Amino acid sequence: MPDSDPSTNSHVRVGVYVCHCGTNIAGTVDVKSVSEYAASLPGVVVAREYKYMCSDPGQGLIQQDIAEQGLNRIVVAACSPLLHEPTFRRVLKRAGINAFFLQIVNIREHDSWVHLDKGAATQKAKDLVRAAVRRVSLHKPLQKRQVPIHPSALVVGGGIAGIHAALTLAEAGKQVYLVEREPTIGGHMAMFDKTFPTLDCAACILTPKMTTVGSHPHIKLWTYSEVIQVEGYVGNYKVRIKHKPRYVIDDLCIGCQECIAACVYKEGKTPDEFNLGLSKRKPVYLPFPQAVPQKVVIDPETCIEFKSGKCKKTCIEACGDRHAIDFKQQESVDEIEVGTIILATGFKTFDPKRNPNYGYGRYGNVYTSLEVERLINAAGPTGGELVLRDSNKPKSVGIIHCVGSRDSNTNRWCSKVCCMYSLKLAHLVRERTGAEVFNFYIDMRTPGKGYEEFYDRLLDEGVHFIRGRVAEVSDFAAHPSEEGKLVIRAEDTLAGFVRRIPVDMVILAVGLEPQADAQDVRRMFNISCASEGWFLERHPKLAPVSTFTEGVYIAGACQGPKDIPDSVAQAGAAAAEAMALIDARFVELEPYTAFVLADECSGCKSCIPLCPYHAISFSDEKRKADINEVLCKGCGTCVAGCPSGSIKQNFFEDEEIFEEIEGVLAYA
Amino acid sequence: MNLQRTVKFEAETDREFAQWIAHEIGGEKLRECLQCGLCSGTCPLSLYMDKTPRRLMYLAREGFKGDVLSSLSIWLCTSCYGCVIDCPKQINITGMMYSLKQRAIEEKFYPPRFPIPVMARQFSRMVRSSGRITESWLVVQVFARTAIWRLLGMGKLGLRLLRTGRMRLVRDKVEHRHDISQLMDAVQVAKKELVA
Amino acid sequence: MKYAYYPGCSLKGTGRAYEESLLAIFQALNVPCEELHDWNCCGATSYMSVDQLSSYALAARNLALAERENMEIIAPCAACYLVLNKTQHYMHDYAQINSIVTQALGTIGLTCEGKTQVRHPLEILLNEVGLQTLAAKVKSPLQGLKVAPYYGCQLVRPYCTFDDQRNPTSMDRLLSACGAKVINYSSKVQCCGASQKGTVPEVGLDRIRRLLLAAKGEGAEVIATVCPLCQFNLECFQEEAGNSHEPISIPVLYFSQLIALALGLDAKSTALQRCIVPVQTLLGSKGIVHA
Q: What pLDDT was estimated at residue A2?
C-alpha cells in the first residue's frame, strides 16, 4: 500500500493541464492560479494552462511533455469527460503510455458553468484538481477488451420496418433471420387499402418487397414463429425460436389453395383475423391472397379433425400427390447465433371499447379505421364496397379524430398518423360512395412531405372539417332529421356552438399503442421501455434506433407511433448500425467492469439478483460468483452490495475513490 | 345599421380576474386547456348556453371578466361533472363554475329575477336558519320571488305529492340550530383572518 | 359496526320511498344502521354556488358528528354523497379550506380529521352484503322485468370509487341478482337536469324527455334510480315530456324498492303507494308478487 498521499511515490510523475475553454472556464475560474497551485502539489512535475486543450496544439503540449518530461500520469481539468475523455485517451496512447493513466476533472459543467462567485469557483477547481492528482496516482493500466461479432442479424417482426431492415442487410450480403409471429409477413401495412399522401395502393408497393424477402438467398424467413429465449451479449447472441405448427409442410405446399376449396366447411364460420372479424374463414386458410409465404395454415381450434378426429379430410384428398398436409406436425424449436438484433415489432390500435361514449360495440355502424381499411380494400370482406351492416351504402359518414389519443384518461400522446389517415379515409369514402363526410378534429397534424398539400386537396373536395373533440355518438333523435341515424355531438369550436351531426356511419380514428406484450418482449431482449410503453431509444434526438443494450436495435412503430416513410427510414438506419457493428468485426468494451476476488468470495449469492444486466453467474462447483466481463456495464451495484467486499471494479477501486475523497477534503 | 366596435384591446382585459380564476379550485390546470371542446360536447346543458363551457374557460383565462360573469352559462351548469371526467387534461371545470357563480353573486352580475341564483340564495337562507331544507317551502319561496304564476301551474303535481305523502308541510329543523348559524358565522370570521 | 345513515333533506320529503325501502332492505339483509343524530343539510349544489367555504363547513359538521361516534356514513342521496366526499377530499387537498373549516367547527366543539368514510348503499349491498347473499334471500324474483338502471351524474362522478365512472354496473348487477332483466341503458350516466326543471323549465324538460324517450325506445318497463331528484324529475313530468303521438308513462322506482319487492317485504317497505306513475298493474302483468 502506498503512503497516505500516493502522489508522493517517487515513480509517479504527474502532468496537470488546465483548460481555459475560451471564456467558458476562464471567465469564472482563475485558471492561471489553478495551474500554479497544481504545480505546487506533490508528484506534479509540470502544470500548464492553455486556451483550448482539446485542440491539436493543446494535445501536442501533453504529448510533448510526456516525451520530454517522462510523465506517466495526466490530469486534464477541462469540460465534461463525456466530451473529450476519448480525445485525451488517444493522446496518451499516441505518446506511448496506457490510456487509463488519465483523469479528467470537470471544471466547466461542474464549476464555471454553475457558480457565480469567482473566488469560490477557483478554490473549488483547486480542490478538484488536488483530488484528481491523488487519484490518478493509483490508476492501474487497463485494456479495452475486444469481442468478435457474429456476422449475422436477427430481425423480429415482419412488418414494413422489419422487411426493409432485413432486405437492406441481406442486400449487403449479411445473413438475416426474419421472425414473424403471424403466418405471413406484411404487418399492418398489408391491411391498408391506399397509403397517404400519394394514394399508392399499399399492397402494390409492399408485396414486391415481401416476395423479395421470401426468395432472398440471405434471408431465412420464419413465419408463424416467435422468439422464446435470448442469451448472450453484443456480437454473440444465442436465440431460441419456436415454430408454431401450420400442419402443412412448408417445402411441399405451393399455395394452390385447393384444400381450402375442398374443406368440408362449405363456408367459413370462424371470424377472420385479417379482416378483423368482418368476414369468416374456414379452419384451413390463407391469411390474405398475397401472403408470403404462400402457404396455407390449419387452425387446430376450429378444424374438425383436431376436435373429433373424424373428419373426411377432403383437404388431403385435394392436395393429392403433393402430400403437403400433416396433421401430426409438432411445434419445433431452432437455436441460432446472431451478432445483432433488430426489433421491429410494430404497434396495436387503441381499443375503442375503452371510450363507451363513442358507441363502438353498441351501434353496429360504428367502425374503427382499420376495419374500414379492410372494407374498402378490394380483397377485403365486402370486395371493396364500403357498405353499412345492412349492405346499403352510407350517405353520410363521420370520422372522429384522436380516439384514445391526446387524452390523459387513455393515452397522453398524439399518435401522429391519424390525422393523415383520416384525411385519406375521407377521400376514399367520398370516392367510393359519394357520401357527405365530416371530419371532427382538434388540430390538423400534417407535417410530412406532401401532407399539407393533401389536406388542401381534401378541403377542395368539400369534406366538412369541424374542429371539436367529439363527446358522444348516440342513436337518440332529438330532431326528425336524426331518426334512424347515428348522431355525433361535438362543439364546433370555430363556430362557438354545439352541433349535432346525423350520419349513417361513424369511423373512429383509433390511435396507436405499444403491442400488448411489449413488456415481455423488452424483458426478453434486455432493453427498456419508456414510461408510455414504447421501446426506449438510446437518445431521443441523436440515437433513435439504438438501445442501451449494445447490439440490439429498434425500428418502426415499436419505438413510437410513426408513418411508413419514418418506419422505413428507421429500419434502414437500424440496418446500417447493425451492419456497422458486423463490419467492424470486433466491438471494444470499456474496461470499467467489476470482477470478483475469488479467494475472498464467500458464495453468499447476494450479488446475483442485484445485477440489472444478468452479468453475474454462480459456479456451483467452486461456490463462487463470476462476472461476465462482456455483459457487465460497470454500474457498481454489486460492488456496493457485496457483504464481504470481494467485488471490485476497474477504474473505481475503493482506494481510488477514497483517495479522491481525501483529496477534496484536504485543505491546501 | 348599428355598428359596434368589437375589437378588444389588451388594456381592457382584467388581469386580476385572469389570475384569480387560475388560483381558484379547478384553475390549477386551466393553462393546459387545448380548447378541444370536449367539455362543451359532453355538457348536457351546453345546448342552451350562450357561451359554451370551453369558450367560457378561454375567456376567463384571458381576463374577459364581463363576458364571463354576465353569461347565463354559469347558471345552467348543474355540476354533473361530465366535463371533468371527460376532459383529456383533467381540468376541474365544474370547480371553476362554482367559483364563477359565487363571484357573479358577490358582484351582482345576473338579471335580478333569474331563478337559479335566487334559488341558491333562498336555499342558503333556509339552511342557515333551520339547518335543513323543506322542499315544499323552498319551492314556494323561489317562485314567489321570480314567477309566482308558475305555482298555479304546479297545482296538479302538488296534489299528487300530497296524496302520496311526499309533500312535507312541517318545516324540518335541526335540534342545535344555534350551532348552524354559529358555524356559518365562524366560517366568515376564519375567512377574514386568513385574508388578513 | 353500525353505520350512520345520513338521509339528507329530500329523503324526508319527496324521496320518502327511498328511505322507507332502503332501511327495510338493510334490516332484512342485516346491515345495521341508525340515523345520524342531528344531521344537517349537506348544502348540495345550491349552497356550494353561494359560498363554497360555508358549504364545506356544513358538510363537515356531519362528517364530524359521525367521526365522534366512530361510524361510517351511508349517504343514499347522490348529491349528499358527492358533497360529503368532496368536502372530505378538499379538506385533505387544500390546506386553506382545512384550516378555515377546522377553526369554524372548533367553535361548536367538533373536529373533522377526515377519518369518516362516506359510502353509498349500492356499494354496501355489493361489497358488504354481496350478490350471492342477496340472491339467496330473494323470495319473489322480478320475473325478467325490463329495468333501465339510471345512475345519473353525482353518484358516479367524480368521487365514485366502487364502480366504473363511464359505464357503471353495480346497480345492474344487484337488480340482475333479483331476477330483473337489466337493459344496457345508453343514457345511464347522463344528467337529468337537476333543479333546472323548476328554474329554467324548457332546459330541464329537454333533459327529462331525452332520458325517458331513450329508456322507452330501448324497451324499458321500469326505470330504477339512485337519487331523489332524478326520481322526481323522471316521474313527475312524463305528461309534459310526452305528447299525443308519443305519450310517456313509465314507472320510476328507487332501486331499493325493487330489491324490497324481490325480498318479499311488506307494502310499507316497498312503498309502492308513493309512486305517482302507478306500477302495480305492470307488476301484476309480469307475475311479480307484491304486497
A: 38
